[in-house]
Amino acid sequence: MPAEAPPKPGSAEGSGAGKLAREVSSLQASLLGKLHEEMAGGDAALFASAAQRLAEEFGSVTATAVGTLWERADAVPAPSAEEGHPSLYRPGQMRRRLDQLIECQRRYEQPFALVVFDVEGPGAREDGEDGGRETALAVVGAALGDSVRLVDETFRLEEDALCVLAPGQATVGGVQMAERLLGQLDDLERAGGLRIGISAGVVACPEHGSDAEALLHKADEAMWRARSVGQPVGVGALGA
C-alpha cells in the first residue's frame, strides 16, 4: 500500500486544526481496536452500539477543540500583564475539560496525565529587569508549546500556575513532558541569559484516582514537595 502523502503546506490538513483532528482520530482508532479485542466473540450489536457512543464522544471533543483553535487563530490578542499569555486557556475551561477526561476514563478506560507547573528563579521576580512573573509565565507557556502534543491542552490557573492535561498519557508521559520543558528553558538561558526555573507536579488518572479535586491537590502537593527538596519534578503519592 503506498505511503500516505504529507499534507500540503497551507492546506486544511496541514493546519493546527487538521493535525489535531488526525491525532484524535488515531486515538479513537486505537480505542476501537482495544474495544474490539475485549469483545471478540461477543454480541455484534453491543459492539456496534459501544462504537457509536465512542464516535459521538470523540466527535464532540474534536468539534470543541477544533472550534477553539479556529477562534484563537482568527483573533489572538496581544499579551498583557492583566491577561497573561494569549495561548493559554482559562481556569474554568480547565475544570470542564478535566471533568470530560475523567468521564472518558470511566467509560473507556482511557488514561490521562495532569501536570501542574509553577515558575521560579531570577526571571520570575517582580522586581527583575525582564518583566517579572507575568513575563516568566508567558515564556513558560510559549515553551510548553514545543514540549506538548497537539492533543494536550495548557491552562492558566487562578494562583498563577500552569496546568497541562494530556489525554492518553500516564505518569511517565507527564514526567517526560516536564523534562522536555526543562530542556527548553535551559536552551533559553544559554541563548539569552534569562534564567527561569520550574517546579512540576505530575499525577495521572486512574493511577492517582479519578476525582478532580483530589488529582489537582495531589499534583500541587507533589510540586511543592519537589521544590522543598530542590528537585524540579515530583510525582503524586498513590493511594488515599
Helix content: 40-55%
Mean pLDDT: 77
Report the principal-axis shape: elongated
H-E string: HHHEHEEHEHE
Broad structural category: alpha+beta
What does this structure look like?
- This protein is an alpha+beta fold and 240 residues long.
- 52% of the residues lie in helices and 13% in strands.
- Strand 2 (153-156) and strand 3 form a beta hairpin.
- The protein contains 6 helices and 5 strands.
- It starts with 15 loop residues before the first helix and ends in a 5-residue tail after the last strand.
- The chain has a 5-stranded mixed sheet with strand order 2-3-1-4-5, with helices on both faces.
- It is elongated, with a radius of gyration of 19 Å.
Topology:
Layout: H1 16-38, H2 44-74, H3 91-108, E1 112-120, H4 132-144, E2 153-156, E3 162-167, H5 171-192, E4 197-205, H6 212-228, E5 233-235
Parallel strand pairs: 4-5
Antiparallel strand pairs: 1-3, 1-4, 2-3
Question: Which descriptors apply to this entry?
Answer:
6 helices; alpha+beta; single chain; about 50% helix; elongated; about 240 residues; five-stranded mixed beta sheet
